[in-house]
User: Which sequence fits this backbone?
């Protein structure tokens, strides 16, 4: 997979969640994605950006336009140096949450993406990567 | 800080969400709405989301909260104008919003509110077409 | 050594631009592939003049080895525009690339004429020119192919949309008669267009009729159910009609849960229910008012 272009966005406040949505929207439009695909990836980005801010104590997002040889796609990597996730499987189950919210963020983002990868360990932060192919 | 305007429409309240809401704005909307319901004695609330391109779990939670809170205050909430792309994404996301009534647009929303209030059944949670 | 000396090409292009242009236009017009019906001669002249000017200007102060750099952006963009418009107009990729490749001969001739005596210098310049033209020509072809692919996928989408029309049976009641095999992509397009139509017409109920669908697999069933769920979220209802016995069996075997969805055997039945839901029914006219 090759990266054609990239951008970094910092997530330090709840306003940053909005600018993440706008940036991802812009990138997906430039990629020529149809409306439904755009909506899916922007929504997934919103969920993950919020997780990064609330559970990860802030972090950053790397947006990349990638190509796997036949298709173009948008790759989003959310990184934080927060407490990390103890039990990933449990976290991916809908409804699970440690702070009383709806808990759809992680599992939801996975369902909205073509590819999903998560690396997280207690005390070592979290890195979540999603890809939506055009 | 900017606020989302709440308008009085007959005996109902109308909220049109047009901006990308950040967390504080969403919370202040919930506060303002509940105050207004009490102040005006409104029996119904219409939330117009036709301008929203995205509804994530946070906004979904907010809409759900508003529906629950207004229920307790004896008012019915109807969310109108959801865009197809948003609906499809919410289904994929798994956001069901079971306690939120929806209608295609403001007119239909008002129709729904009027017929439900006429029945005087504010706690009737089922689909109103199953009469 | 001939190698260390700067290329003569930039200077020659600048000095003899007019003559090279004239030769080039003659080459293009003489080609078997020239289509005076598709492209007006004046348009071709305009494009060629502009391109040659751009090319000449660019190689005055920039290396010809790498055309992907920022110095060559304007040239690339110009070729992109030409390539895309030819793709849309229906030219072949060869015809389109010929625009660039046909430049070789006129410049070759000029180089020979001016540098004729020293073989080594001539060969160096010829080689640099060939490389450059080849790269530009290939780039043109790449863009052409990408444009064609875009056109094809757009046409595919349009075909799918055309073959699954949403009809309005009555005020507030839509029908979507699905015919033929449903694949994942088609079902998604259909889903979107139904939901959009629901918003446009403000229809409170849609009848999705699958009488004409021979088989339903898990994926298709899930898409249908998602459509119904999405419509419900928006404030509208869906009835699925035309479920044949075999499909009913498949659905049960697949373990697909239809608990929230109304299903009817025929569209007629579904239509009756739809009318009822809005307090409407069909009654016979009295004898006197028969048409």
Assistant:
């Amino acid at each position: 997979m090759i990266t054609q272009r990239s951008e970094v966005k910092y997530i330090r406040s709840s306003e940053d969640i909005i600018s993440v949505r706008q940036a991802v929207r812009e990138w997906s439009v430039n990629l020529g994605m149809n409306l439904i695909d755009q909506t899916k990836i922007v929504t997934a980005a919103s969920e993950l950006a919020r997780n990064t801010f609330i559970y990860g104590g802030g972090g950053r997002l790397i947006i990349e336009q990638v190509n796997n040889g036949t298709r173009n796609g948008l790759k989003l990597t959310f990184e934080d140096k927060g407490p990390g996730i103890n039990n990933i499987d449990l976290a991916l189950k809908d409804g699970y949450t440690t702070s009383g919210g709806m808990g759809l963020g992680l599992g939801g983002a996975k369902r909205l993406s073509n590819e999903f990868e998560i690396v997280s360990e207690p005390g070592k932060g979290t890195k979540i990567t999603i890809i939506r192919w055009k | 800080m900017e606020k989302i305007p709440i308008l009085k429409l007959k005996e109902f309240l109308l909220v049109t969400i047009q901006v990308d809401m950040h967390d504080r704005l969403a919370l202040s909307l919930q506060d303002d709405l509940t105050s207004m319901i009490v102040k005006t004695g409104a029996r119904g609330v219409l939330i117009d989301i036709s301008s929203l391109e995205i509804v994530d779990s946070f906004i979904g939670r907010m809409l759900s909260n508003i529906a629950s809170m207004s229920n307790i205050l004896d008012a019915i909430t109807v969310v109108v104008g959801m865009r197809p792309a948003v609906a499809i994404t919410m289904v994929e996301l798994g956001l069901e919003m079971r306690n939120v009534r929806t209608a295609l647009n403001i007119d239909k929303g008002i129709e729904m509110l009027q017929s439900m209030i006429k029945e005087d059944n504010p706690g009737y949670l089922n689909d109103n077409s199953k009469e | 050594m001939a190698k260390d000396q700067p290329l003569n090409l930039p200077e020659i292009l600048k000095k003899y631009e007019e003559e090279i242009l004239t030769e080039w236009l003659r080459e293009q017009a003489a080609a078997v592939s020239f289509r005076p019906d598709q492209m007006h001669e004046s348009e071709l002249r305009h494009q060629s003049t502009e391109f040659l000017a751009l090319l000449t200007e660019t190689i005055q102060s920039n290396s010809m080895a790498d055309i992907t750099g920022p110095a060559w952006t304007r040239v690339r963009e110009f070729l992109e525009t030409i390539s895309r418009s030819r793709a849309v107009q229906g030219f072949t990729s060869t015809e389109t690339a010929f625009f660039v490749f046909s430049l070789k001969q006129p410049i070759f001739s000029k180089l020979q004429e001016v540098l004729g005596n020293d073989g080594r210098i001539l060969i160096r310049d010829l080689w640099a020119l060939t490389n450059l033209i080849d790269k530009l020509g290939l780039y043109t072809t790449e863009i052409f192919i990408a444009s064609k692919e875009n056109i094809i996928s757009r046409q595919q989408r349009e075909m799918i949309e055309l073959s699954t029309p949403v009809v309005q049976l009555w005020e507030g009641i839509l029908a979507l008669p699905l015919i033929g095999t449903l694949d994942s992509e088609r079902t998604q397009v259909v889903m979107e267009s139904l939901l959009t139509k629901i918003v446009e017409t403000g229809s409170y109920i849609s009848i999705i009729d699958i009488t004409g669908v021979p088989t339903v697999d898990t994926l298709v069933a899930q898409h249908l159910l998602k459509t119904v769920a999405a419509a419900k979220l928006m404030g509208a209802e869906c009835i699925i009609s035309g479920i044949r016995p075999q499909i009913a069996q498949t659905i049960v075997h697949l373990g697909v849960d239809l608990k929230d969805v109304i299903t009817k055997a025929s569209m007629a039945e579904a239509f009756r229910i739809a009318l009822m839901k809005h307090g409407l029914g069909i009654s016979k006219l009295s004898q006197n008012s028969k048409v």
